[in-house]
Amino acid sequence: MKGISLLTDTLRDARIMTGRTGRMPEPREVKLAERYAHRGYHDKPHIPENSMAAFRRAVEHGFPAEFDVHMIADGSLVVFHDESLERQTGVTGEIEDYDIVNLSRLRLEGTDEQIPTLDEVLNLYEHTGLPLLIELKVARGNYRKLTEAVCRRLDSYTGEYTVESFDPRALMVLRRIRPEIRRGQLAQDFIKNREGLPFYQAVLLTNLAFNKIVQPDFIAYRFSDRMVPALRIAARKKGIPEAMWTIKTPEDYRTAVREGCVPIFEQFDPDNM
Predict the structure, then answer these.
(1) Domain-by-domain residue ranges, the chain?
(2) What is the third-level CATH fold of 6-15+33-268?
(3) CA dihedral 116, 77, 89, 97 (to 10 degrees)
């Protein structure tokens, strides 16, 4: 979202959407999975995050999975978290500049694992009965192209899934072109941790300012920021379901469950706490 006129784009897309759909409906009831393994059930350094090994391990343990989708230079959809390749591959540059051939030459975190495609992850999960939580990773203002491409692929997917994003523009496009798909607004306290955002964007996103337009079916908020007033108002007064990320300890997992939230956990087995 850096360098993008979030407010201008959102208001423009809102006018387009309301012109086509009329009145905005009330939020729907949504049934999330009991929990999700964050970026697959990884176990660093041997099993990298968002790797096929991590997703196979999640399936073996019966865990639904959360993962991230980028669109790269040739239009391919791949599963990876960061825009920068360096943290996970040791290579400088951004993932959006690669095509699938060059990307396939890279390896994850010193292992033999490659960056998976969305097709590979969906094919693994399709007949398992395990739900997926798919995050749209918007970059360079590609929220519309990314959302449309992911929706086209999901049209033929027969498994259960839900889509989420930090970028409300992607969720507005999703609501307009596939209103039947359950959608979640990702957020955190960007005022406390700006992550390069302009101050006005940090304020808007922290305070879930676009919820009335996006009409999210749930909110996925950073666990450590869960007492932000805007989230508490949305959850307690408006009844919007909550998911919490990233749960890294059994104690935090129990807290999230006790507070009625869906845990998005990593690197421990919640069945053996």
Answers:
(1) 6-15+33-268
(2) TIM Barrel (3.20.20)
(3) 160
